[in-house]
Amino acid sequence: MSRGLTGHDYHIGVETDPRRLDARAWNALLDSQPAPTPFLRLEYLAALHASASAVPDTGWGAQFLTVHRGAELVAAAPLYVKSHSYGEYVFDWAWADAYRRHGLAYYPKLLGAVPFTPVPGTRLLACDDAGRDLLVAAMRQLALDAGLSSAHVLFVDDTDRAAFERAGWMLRENLQFHWTQDRERPVADFDELLARLQREKRKKIQQERRRVAELGVEFTAHEGEAIDAGLWDFFHRCYTLTYAAHHSTPYLTRDFFARMQSTMAQNWLLFVGRREGRPVAASLIAIDRERGSAWGRYWGCVEPLPFVHFEACYYQPLAWCLREGFLRFEGGAQGEHKMARGLLPVRTSSAHWLRDERFAGAVAEFLAREGEGVEAWADELRERSPFKRDAATG
Question: Which CATH superfamily hosts domain 178-344?
């Protein structure tokens, strides 16, 4: 379909296979956004599709929205038709159950998100607010035309959030835990970070690290092309063991990580823990050196080793970020325990549109109550900062 916008003709299309899109044009559009992340690069999204990790057979039907002016890609958004709510990290199972109890179908629904990746960032790739508004309107129309119950866009940045707010979508708030460098009083290294923590928090971390050292576990860091196929194999074994420990099935195939090795090696950092020369644990971190940002993603251990999780997922990455001059480390979804390790609460937002006005009203009331609870939780957490009062970071 096509429509006019500020005097120009735009063609709006839907692509079911991200591999058919122009990666250079998509990534150039991404790089111009307020909050780009590696997870929205077309190579990442295409690898999810090509590796059969996020495809219709697993409940993720790609419906990538594109806006062209002539041959130029001027706006885009990764969308999926979902037949479930797994792999999203913004939980709407109760909404689906309410639909079911009233004899209505909640699935399929339209989702704007990076599969299995609860990382805040740009979701509406557009050059200006007019383009973002067009994408939001097109999402709603796509859901209507396909007879879908609803549309949801997860972990949006503030610019996207404003666009959804202008369109009257419902907004949902939650919290994650991130470390951010103090720009006024930068932390020089991990020892200084510890020194800024309250005494009991600092002692607990020191005790945990001592226990890992007493186990004889030592870590090495491997970045980019230094992560060879053997290390990826070991990491994937750890990754699958983590899911097995929770009686679950991994979302990502080994082929997905092979594609990361070949197309986005520069965006990965692997910590490997060894004991008596044997690899026993691994944690995978995504990195963006240009913007000084890092994201904790996956971890695993081949045998039960106390406190190794904290070392692999928090202490090693934080120490590395400080050595390398990074400005931000995001610890992933949920996890109030991250606060005791120097990560502070940060608001996250998602946007929601429901076609059924009765359910939309009920959900709006629920979100208002939930939002009050999240704000109260955030206030409580700020009062319980792990940092000394004169040494708060972030």
Answer: Gcn5-related N-acetyltransferase (GNAT) (3.40.630.30)
